[in-house]
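ok, trying the design again with the full structure, not the truncated one.
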């Protein structure tokens, strides 16, 4: 079998012809860190995750085709990565010094061209200069066929990059402050993180425009000092960075991104020609339904007036809130169809003015709501594909029997009752209806978790791909509660979403007991949570009525209706308001004052009231007692809360009383950590994917 010795690894690398996955790992050991892990890999660190998922240890992309690997260490390289030349002399992008190939796994640098964080790079130690091998070997640079530009806005020369993918979430064009699309032509500086779209870098230095006929407009990197509160003279939006055309005589500024400044002839989907009015009049824009003044366009045949910016509205757009494209219309032809609401802000639509609507379903939106930058989907993004596609999490073996990804044995559908307190492994809720169970071990999944949770899904809140995993414990990135069971990991944001937050966001509107109007998701709400008084400035559920200040964050929305406390024999019920005087409102657990306006748990039989945090702590959805494996311990461990005679934490030395802890299941082993202490000790954790036995 062909093998090579590579400078980046101490052991010989063997040529394999397929994706490794767990190839070469010893049974019962992690292929990433070589520690005990019954599932074959422990996901305990970034390195283990990369090795287990079949990623190249050099370029960090998925392994496809032939590759070199060390099965014992879980180290793999693409064949092309393993065969890269170790030194480049006189490279066109850095001819002054040779570039040496090196692997820096723990503190990777970023490529000076594409800005991508890389572990494999060609590096010049003298100049602190790095090149991604893909950039170094790109035909455009190898053939020395690239343009250089000395731009007025930057001290160093810029080079033209035609078709290299850049790190879009790190840099923005400093000309228009818009994101750098992955394959768009751009000019970049090799010395610093300075990028310009090709169209922004090649803007003319002076223009004459009908919007300001008196004087020519000069392109500047920023407004002159005398314009303290600069705003675009056409769209009146304040200046927030980027290039701007200015008239130094009249002290006027025009954004170069304003569509009216870019073209004199309006590009519009209106069926008739539009005439530009240069007078200063007040009007209501027929295209978007909002007030306007100053420059505008009019259609003589339709007798409409629209904003200058609305003359170039796109006929169709794609937003992350809806799976289909939305089309712009100027008015509803059937005005007797009844009231219609905007599906984003839930205010009433004026049927006599323009809006965006879906031709396939009953979805409508105000123009300004649909054009919100946080909601518009990038036309060049791959997520523009059908994000309603369903990827099932199970395979049906025969009627009533399935193979689910979360368990090694087949699961059988059952209608029999379960023991009191038995909960679903996926959502950690009590099972009350039909469920799937394992005939060989104590494993249960409710029917909803099996049939209503796809393995992969694109979520409308961010449009990134989310994948369903089975966790022993994880932090939900939305409600901040610790949870066990199923969670959706977002490959774009890196957050994990619990099933409860997933269900709430899928409904999009929530009804609360005692609240007249429903709550809807508002990504820009600023205010306080009615349930806990926490301040937040985005991503909340607020009341449809703008006069009402009722809003809730994720943490309050997922609070269970009932909860149990160890010193109360009855279940405590979530209560939304206390009519007692403030002087009589105390928490019976921490004995501190309670705000009667905030939510609390109450037992009517014992007249006990308590803060939600005092009753639930942060782990109301964590399943205790189930064994699982972690990468740094030889025995199975479990999650526990110890009341009496608690042992001391191996990290902080304090007793593990009432705190969530990780403890070894072997009676003679003293391995025990507070959960928070374990997380701090395992600083290399990327995500807490801890597989169970």
């Amino acid at each position: 079998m062909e093998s090579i010795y590579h400078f980046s690894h101490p052991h010989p690398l063997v040529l394999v012809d397929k994706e490794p996955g767990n190839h070469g790992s010893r049974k019962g050991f992690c292929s990433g860190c070589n520690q005990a892990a019954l599932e074959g890999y422990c996901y305990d660190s970034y390195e283990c995750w990369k090795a287990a998922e079949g990623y190249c240890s050099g370029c960090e992309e998925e392994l496809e085709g032939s590759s070199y690997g060390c099965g014992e260490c879980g180290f793999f390289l693409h064949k092309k990565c393993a065969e890269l030349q170790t030194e480049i002399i006189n490279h066109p992008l850095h001819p002054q010094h040779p570039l040496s190939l090196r692997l820096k796994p723990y503190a990777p640098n970023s490529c000076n061209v594409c800005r991508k964080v890389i572990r494999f790079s060609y590096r010049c130690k003298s100049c602190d200069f790095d090149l991604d091998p893909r950039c170094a070997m790109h035909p455009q640079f190898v053939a020395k066929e690239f343009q250089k530009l000395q731009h007025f806005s930057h001290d160093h020369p810029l080079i033209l990059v035609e078709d290299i993918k850049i790190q879009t979430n790190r840099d923005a064009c400093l000309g228009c402050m818009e994101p750098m699309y992955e394959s768009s032509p751009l000019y970049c500086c090799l010395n610093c993180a300075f990028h310009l779209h090709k169209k922004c870098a090649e803007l003319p230095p002076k223009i004459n425009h009908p919007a300001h006929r008196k004087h020519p407009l000069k392109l500047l990197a920023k407004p002159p000092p005398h314009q303290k509160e600069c705003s675009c003279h056409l769209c009146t939006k304040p200046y927030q960075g980027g290039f701007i055309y200015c008239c130094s005589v009249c002290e006027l500024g025009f954004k170069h991104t304003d569509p009216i400044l870019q073209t004199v002839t309006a590009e519009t989907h209106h069926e008739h020609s539009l005439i530009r009015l240069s007078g200063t009049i007040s009007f209501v824009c027929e295209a978007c339904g909002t007030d306007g003044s100053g420059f505008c366009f009019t259609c003589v045949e339709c007798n409409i007036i629209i904003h200058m910016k609305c003359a170039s509205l796109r006929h169709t757009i794609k937003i992350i809130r809806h799976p289909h494209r939305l089309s712009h219309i100027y008015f509803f032809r059937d005005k007797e169809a009844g009231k219609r609401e905007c599906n984003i802000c839930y205010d009433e639509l004026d049927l006599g003015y323009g809006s965006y609507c879906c031709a396939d379903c009953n979805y409508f939106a105000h123009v300004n709501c649909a054009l919100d930058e946080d909601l518009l989907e990038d036309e060049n993004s791959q997520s523009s594909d059908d994000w309603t596609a369903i990827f099932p999490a199970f395979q049906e073996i025969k009627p009533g029997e399935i193979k689910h990804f979360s368990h090694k044995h087949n699961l059988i559908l059952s209608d029999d009752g379960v023991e009191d307190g038995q909960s679903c492994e996926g959502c950690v809720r009590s099972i009350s209806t039909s469920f799937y169970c394992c005939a060989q071990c104590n494993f249960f999944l409710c029917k909803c978790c099996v049939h209503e949770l796809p393995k992969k899904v694109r979520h409308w809140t961010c449009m990134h791909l989310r994948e369903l995993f089975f966790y022993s414990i994880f932090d939900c990135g939305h409600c901040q509660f610790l949870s066990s069971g199923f969670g959706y990991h977002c490959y774009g944001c890196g957050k994990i979403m619990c099933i409860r937050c997933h269900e709430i966001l899928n409904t999009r509107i929530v009804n609360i007991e005692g609240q007249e109007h429903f709550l809807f998701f508002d990504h820009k709400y600023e205010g306080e949570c009615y349930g806990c008084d926490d301040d937040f400035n985005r991503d909340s559920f607020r009341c449809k009525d703008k006069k009402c200040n009722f809003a809730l964050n994720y943490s309050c929305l997922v609070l269970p209706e009932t909860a149990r406390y160890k010193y109360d024999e009855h279940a405590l019920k979530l209560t939304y308001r206390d009519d007692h005087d403030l002087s009589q409102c105390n928490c019976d657990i921490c004995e501190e004052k309670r705000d009667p306006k905030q939510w609390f748990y109450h037992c009517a039989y014992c007249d006990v009231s308590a803060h939600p945090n005092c009753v639930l702590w942060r782990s109301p959805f964590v399943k205790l007692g189930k064994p699982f494996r972690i990468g740094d311990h030889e025995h199975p461990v479990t999650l526990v809360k110890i009341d009496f005679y608690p042992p001391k934490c191996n990290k902080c030395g304090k007793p593990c009383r009432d705190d969530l802890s990780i403890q070894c299941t072997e009676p003679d082993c003293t391995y025990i950590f507070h959960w928070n202490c374990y997380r701090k000790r395992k600083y290399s954790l990327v995500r807490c994917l801890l597989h169970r036995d």
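Keeping the full-length input from now on. Residues 206-262 form one domain.
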